[in-house]
Every structure is written in structure tokens, then in C-alpha cells.
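Possible race condition, two jobs.
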Amino acid sequence: MDLKTTAKVDLHRHLEGAIRLQTLIDLYRDAGEPLPESTPEELSTRAQVLKPMKSLEEVLARFEIAQRAFFDPDAAERIAYEAVEDLALDDVRLAELRFSPEFLCEPHGLDWDDAMAGIVRGVERASREHDVAVGLIAIVSRNYGMASAERTVDFALRHLDRLVGFDLAGDERPYPPSMYVDVLEPIVKAGLSLTVHYGESGGPQFPREAIEALGALRLGHGVSVAWDPEVTALARERGTTLEMCPTSNHRTNAVAKIGDHPARRLLDEGVRVTINTDNPGLFAIDLTHELEVCRNDLGFRDDDLRRVTENAIDASFVDDATKADVRRRHFGWLG
């Protein structure tokens, strides 16, 4: 199976982590704040993570250049447009892009709703031109505190017609899921689907609590689900989908070796595993690369690739009519 030309699904892709290096150079120059680097090759050493680092927190520190690239709504529109264009270049036909309004707007005091308008313009234009179905997910960046979480909930409620889901992200260990039960209540009541980053840098108690206390339908990464048989069984019984990202999980030190990644074992144990990119710009990868890692390093067979793709279509938060249309037109390879 030629993975590059096979239609694919990416459910876990951060907008801030999907920016082209040349675009970063252009945006900083156009804003009158040129970077010291003039080529993508020069910028790569400062703006990408190409080998494993000591921790998730060390990787997150590399986001500063990308974070500061959202100078205005036009910059947000360009970044969003190109993110969808890059999906199409990799034959990803169904995707969800997630972003944190606090994170991307904070450096330049950008109005959250103006940024959202730019992102929506870019996504909608690129989706039409390149035939990619895209859902948007708003993120609470946990390290900004509970007041920021409340603002992000209010933001999501204002944009229910444009969002398909809601997320919590950032370092998980200081911020257990139970902290967010009350603040997320309006999201749950509004019917916005919930995916949360847990099980990436913390132990299995975090995904357990995310499933039990928050009722999360999906877990961002969820690697530590594999480290406790009881949590594995809980995820399987609840039908919780894991948005696994092998290269990211290796480079953030969630797994010591790529061959240690538990995606294949969890899939064989009946857990709803999906394979995603996380931050393709930051890690210099695409979804084809991740599926090749699964095949070459994790022992996935073609049938396994079909299963994770089926899981992703089923678990996507976009509406059922859109999923049915995309599947009919692009996913005949699933049978």
C-alpha cells in the first residue's frame, strides 16, 4: 500500500505546530521583526525538534517562535490556509485542527474573536480549494490558569457554530482532570465534544480520571493508558479513542524508544487507537511518515492501518453527513 497516495485522517494536529518555516520567516519580516535566520534550513535548528528531548516541557519551550507568528488576523488566516493545504498535499482528506486562543493571541494582544475569524477564513478557503474536510477544536492551555480556562470556555460558547470540539493541553501533571469538572460543565451542556491531553507525560491515573471524571470521548496521546491493565480495560470498555502520535511521543520522551510505543499492543487489545501528527511543523513530519513508522517500527500490517483509519473516521467530531460524504468519495480503500 502506497501510504503517500492513500487517503488519511488526522484528528490531532495543532495549528501552532503546523507552520511552515518559510512562513515564519515571511511573517516576522512583514511585521518588521525579522528573524536572524533567512532560510528554513537555518531556522530549523531553533524552531524544530528533530530528535528526542528530555521531557514534554522541554519540547513545549520550542514553540515560542511559532507562538509569536500570529501577529494579526491576516497572519492567522495564512497559517490556517497553509495548514489545510499541507493536509491535502499529504492526501489527508479528513482532519481536525486545534488551537489555544490564549496561547496564540497573548504575545501581540490579538483579539481572540478576530483571530478566530482569520482562522475560519483560511480553513474554509483552503477546504474548498483542496477538498479537505476540517473541524476546529479550541484548547485551554492549562498553564495559563483557571481564569484563562473560563475565558476559553466563553470563547468556545461564542463560536459553537465553528467548533467541533474542546480540549485541555499543556503539562498535565500539575493539572489533574478533576480540576476542570466545574469549568467544563457549560461545554458539556452545550454538546461540544471533549478530547483532552492526558496520558502524555503523566501516569495512568490521569487518563483514568479524564475518562471517569470528565467523560472525555478521546484522549490526546493517552500513552500511559498502556501502563496499567485496569486503565487499558477502562478505555476499551468506555470506547475511549486514543489520539496517538508516535514520533511526538518519542521526542517528548513519553516512550524511550520508538519501538516501545504501545499503539500496536493497545490496538490488538481492542482499544480504539488512531494515528496522528500532533505538530508536523515542529517535528518535520507528515501523516505518511507516522503511518510508515507504524508499519516499519511498530509492526502494523495493512489491516492495522485500515483499523486505525476506520477508528479515526468514526471518532471524528465533524458531523455525520460530512464523514459519510468524505468516506464515500475518498476511502474506498477501507472496503
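Job #2 (started ~2 s after job #1):
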Amino acid sequence: MATRIRLQRHGKKGKPFFHIVAADSRAKRDGKFIEKLGTYNPTANPAVIDINFENTLAWVQNGAEMSNTARAILSYKGVLYKNHLLNGVKKGALTSEQVEEKFAKWLNDKDAKIQGKKDGLAKNATAEKAAKLKAEQEANAAKAAEVAAKNTPEVEVSEEVEIEVASTHENVSEESIENTQEESAHEPVAEVIEEPSADVAEEVSQDDAPAESQSEEPEA
């Protein structure tokens, strides 16, 4: 019976979650399995992989086949590298102490890389959060300024309004002058009457004096 290390899909739509299992190669992908070796969550950043290292290594040493994804996961976790070092021991190229030393160094380097990636992601997330907060503050300030501008009456008089007011004053002044001239034209002019001389006065008095009515009686 050929044994194959592969993934079984679980989780919800759009949020996959996988089990790493050792199963019969003839079984369905999500069917029965022999042993569950770990889990794989690709939605996290970085991806979260949790495996039973010793049991997985034992299956690999026993010649279990691997799917492409399972091979990449086991290589990432160092299972394939440890298997390579142990094969060196079988051939006499390495000792068990050298294997443990090399593998410990590899784990330290791997952990440093993973931690560096986590730190970089955290730094980027903090920078993005700060930039987003700053953008929101600027947008709120601009909106508040716009509302304040709408609610505040304009104090300064524009140049066009000043010109219009000046023109109105000029028209009013011209109309006032014209009205004053018209009123002056309609006012009665005082006549200058000179007193008549003595001769003229005497003539006027004689002309105006009523004639005495002297009725003559008819002769008898």
C-alpha cells in the first residue's frame, strides 16, 4: 500500500484551512486517512504551520510520497533537511552530533528570517495605520472648515459690491442736484418794486381821484 502525505481541505468558503495527513494514495482527497500530522493555515501572514515533526520525519524516512504542497511545507519546516542529514549519517558522511549541530544552526537562521518578516509586517501595519489616521484627521479638518465657511457670513465686501455702492451714491447725488435745480426754477422770483417819484405819484393820484359830481340845476 502506497502512503502519501497530502492536505485535506477544511474551513469556510474563502477561508481555507488544511489538515496535513498521511493517507492511502488511493483514498479520496478528503476521505479516510491513516494519521493526522499537522495543520496549515494559509490565510495568516506569514502562514501558520503546525506539525508533529518526529512522526512526519518517520513517514518520510519510510518512503511516503508527498504532494507538491506537502513537500513545500515539509521543506519549510526542515523535515526534508533533517532527513537529508540523517541519510548522511547512514552513509557515514556525518555523525549524529554534526547532524544536530547543523540542524540547530539551520533552525536559528530560519527563526531569524521568520521573526524579521513578522517585524517588517508589524512595522508596515503600524505605518499604514498612522497614515490612515492622518488622512482621516485631514479629511475631518477640511470638512469642518467647509462647514464653518458655510455657516459664517461674509464680512468683507467684494470689489464689485463696492463699485456698485459707489455708483449708487453718484446717481443719488446727481438726482439730488437735478431736483434742487428744478425746485429753484419753479420758485417765484421776488419782484423789485421801486417807489414812484413824487411827480408820478401826483399824476396817479389825480387820475385815480373820482370826479366831483356837480349837478347843474336846470334853470327855471
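The domain at 3-93 is CATH 3.30.1320.10 (S16 Ribosomal Protein; Chain: A;).
Logs attached separately.
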